[in-house]
Amino acid sequence: MELFLQQTVNAFALGGTYALLALGLAVVFSIMGLINFAHGELMTIAGYVLMYCGLAGISFVFAVPLALLASTFAAVLMERVAFRPVRNSSGATMLVTSFAVAMILQVIFQNFISVRSQPVLLPEALSGSITIGGLVIGVNKLVAIISTVIMLIFLDRFLSKQKYGIAMRAAAEDFAVARLMGIRANTVIAGAFAISGLLAGVAAILWVSQRASVDPLMGFTPVLKAFIAAILGGLGSLRGAVAGGFLLGFIEIYLAAFLPPALQEFRDPIGLGLVVLVLLMRPNGLLPAASLKAEKV
């Protein structure tokens, strides 16, 4: 029972990271119909900011908001420079653009920083652990869970109570009607990218805090998993992205912990098989969006 609870905590920590990344993808997709595969590079930017802050002797407490600011600003700049000029093009054009942006940033990281993994200085407190009722929980895992909950509550309040949040929800439901009501496309889309950048920054901090390193391809694998989670939850559905992220995290952790040793090498195929099984039962995802078609603006 203790092992099960321990792995459940790990699943919540990993699933929370996937949920934040999937939510960032879903926010942009729900409005633009675009899967931004350069989302992982926003994670990498935040990771490198943490690295350089550590080298400069800046406290981790101040490095975290700087990393979040950098990923948010990079996301808005990415939308303005790369995606706004092709916004009225086909979905394939925007998809190719996202791949191009991702590859350009990866080359910049490799040529101007390093092709190798770089260590990130973290507070000693993050490497510690606490004991709750006989259950040993890593501080970094606990921080990941608490940060995820705080971000999800913040976003829920923002999207339901704030003016721009309500405008984004309206745009996600029906952008054409939302524009007729006076909602500006540029403002809403830039806001969606800003939120996605913020979520990528938080996910990067959680990812780095458990690995203490950053490399040019750091964001590739987690964003690929987040894409799977977004599909699993229902592409374009914000609540579905969160549900899909947590479910994928639970699948990965439980398979790693409880799959027989002889089957561990098949862990990834088995996990994807379970995802396919869920999609066979729920073709539109766990919590599908009200409208599966996003209109380009």
TrEMBL record:
It is a multi-pass membrane protein. The chain crosses the membrane at residues 12-37, 49-78, 90-109, 129-155, 188-208, 220-238, 245-263, 269-287. Signal peptide: none annotated. It is found in: Cell membrane. This is High-affinity branched-chain amino acid transport system permease protein BraD. One of its GO terms (cellular component) is plasma membrane. Keywords: Amino-acid transport, Cell inner membrane, Cell membrane, Membrane, Plasmid, Transmembrane, Transmembrane helix, Transport. Belongs to the binding-protein-dependent transport system permease family. LivHM subfamily.
